[in-house]
Every structure is written in C-alpha cells, then in structure tokens.
Amino acid sequence: MKKVLFFTTSGDYHGGGVMCLIETLKYIDRKKIEPYVVIPTHGSTENKLKELSVPYVIIRSYDWLFSNSVIQSKGFKIKRPLQCLVNILSEIRIYLYMRRKKVDAYHLNSVYSSFGFKAAMMLKIPTYWHLREFVDDNPWTSSFLNEKKAYQTIAKAHKLIAVSNCIGNYYQTKMPNAHIVVVYDGVDFNSELTIRKQMILHKPLQLSMIGGISEVKGHEDALYAVSLLKKSGIDCVLTIYGRCRDNDYFKYLNNIIRKCEIEDIVRFAGNRSDIQHVYEDSDIVLICSRSESFGRVAVECMYQNIPVIGADNSGTLELIKDGIFGLLYKTGDSHDLYQKIIAITKRRVPSKDFNRMHDYSLRFSAIESSKNLSKALLS
Question: pTM of this prediction?
Fold first, then answer.
C-alpha cells in the first residue's frame, strides 16, 4: 500500500482541476493507494472528500502564479510579503504532516502552486506534478513571478503528468529534460448524464456555451455567429452559462450584444449546478476557447451525443475529431462558426453514428483516467 498525499489549490469544488481530482479519488485503487488530501481553505471540496471517506487536512497556502492585472495592482505588492511568510510557515506544517503520516508520494494537482514541494524534497518523497494550465503565452493566461525559478523547480519533480498531448508538448519546450507522461483527464460518466438516441433541434435553436466568462473563452466568436444567424432569418437563442471572472470582458461582450442588436436572443444564465438540465436544454454546444488543456465539456457532449462545435486549437483540437457530432471551426472566425452551425442543422444522422461518438468518448472516462494515474503514481 502506497500512501499518496494529494494537494489541490482550491477549497471550493469548482473548476476542471479539482473536479478531475475528486473523480480520480472516487475510482482510485484503494488496495494499492491510500489517499490523503491537503487543501488551502474550508469549502465545498471538503464535502466531496467526506463523501469519499478520504482524510484531509487544511493548511493555508498562496499561489505563485497570477494574472498580470493582479501582479500590477498596489494591493498585491502590499499583500505578497505576508503571503510569502504564510507559505514559509505552512511549508513547515506540511513537512511535519508528511513525516507524521509517513507519506510515500506527493502529488500536486496544478502548476498554480508549489506548496509542499520543498517539504517533500527534504523528506526525499517522490513528487508527481500535474500539468493542466497554459501559462505566459497570452494576455489571458497567468504568469509566474519568477519564470526561470519556477520551471527549474517543476523540472525537479519525479514525474510530470500532462492532461493532454498538447500541454505535454508545451511544457516539454519549457523543460526539455523533464520526464513528462500524458494521462488524459477523465469525466465521471456514472452520473445523470443522458445519452441521446437522436438529434434534437428545438425551435428556436438552442445554442449553449458552458464555462467561466473570461477572455480566454472567446465568447465574441459565438456572439458574432449568432448575429449572422439572426440576419439569415434563423430563429435561435444563445445561452451562456458560468460565473463572470473578468468584469471588463463582460462589459466588452455586452457592447457587442448591443452593437449587433441581439439582446433578445442572448442571455447570461450564471453558474448552474444542475448540469444535466443545462445539457437537456442545449441543441448545440459551442466551445470557442483560445486555449484548453483538456476540455471536459467537449467530452461530456460527445458522451451524450450532443453536437459540439469547437475552435481548432489546443486541447479542443485534440479531443474533437472533425466529423458527425464534433465539428471544428477556425479560431476567431465567427463566419466559419456560423457556417458550421448551419451545417449541423442540415444533417440527418443515422442512429449507428450516435453510438460511434459515444464509444469514442469513453476513452476519457474518470475510471480510465484514475487507472492510468494510479499506474503513473506507482511507477
């Protein structure tokens, strides 16, 4: 039995990283791995861990990866020295916890924080570091305060685990000598997700975007495409689900909506916990992200046989096989997205093709992901 301590940067059960970790723990082989978890704050993640009977400890820690707007703020310059002091004291606490529990391996679930890495190194505990976020490339990504030092630290891990080939290749260029393996994130299909037996097209056509509202998600592509649909006389509604993460971007989107005169067919529905109802209300799901390391929405759509159209970049390009239900459009080209939406509405799909897309999605199940991660942690 190998004792593995998992660290996640979020005390709230929100976002792909912590969701994938919880689903991994749900199916992890308890005969070979005894899991423990460290989280930085109280929150809904605790409830999920209690449901799984996974012991956890709360130790406050702060990230080392920040958006440029945060880094440039006056408040950050004042707070950061105190955050560093907290991290130093917390590193001592995690060191004592690892030693007391006799931990055999330490797993960091995100590159957003290096918390516990020094303690594990001092105790000569093998570290496994998940790579699931792009950094430093674009205005919408976060940046390390000290990029060179950060990559030198991450590269020292026993093994780096990338959630897709695209993000593995990205980090390999940053750390040419690092040992990186690919273990796709998984989606828990043993839920209430319903598998469709035929294509559903309501009137008006129900288009959906699911995820946080921030610049990286590329909502403007969908807004301009919907504007073209309206001008073409196609009755449709675009519903945008997710919490607002960038107020300036939200204002920018509302300006587009007013300019295109589509206020009557675009609505922001906020964050929703009843994801099954969201999918049930969707005819076509749009993924316009500029950067996705994995993209669980695409997988969930394919599993349920919901037509999905994604931008042809990063993890979306890797997951969606351009075919019957998964179509790709040129990133940033709203006219191409408009044409792809039209193409889906004109298709008549044989029932056997539903099974093909559903079967393809099963390779990204949480059970499969947990099995592959267990192998990586045990090696």
Answer: 0.87
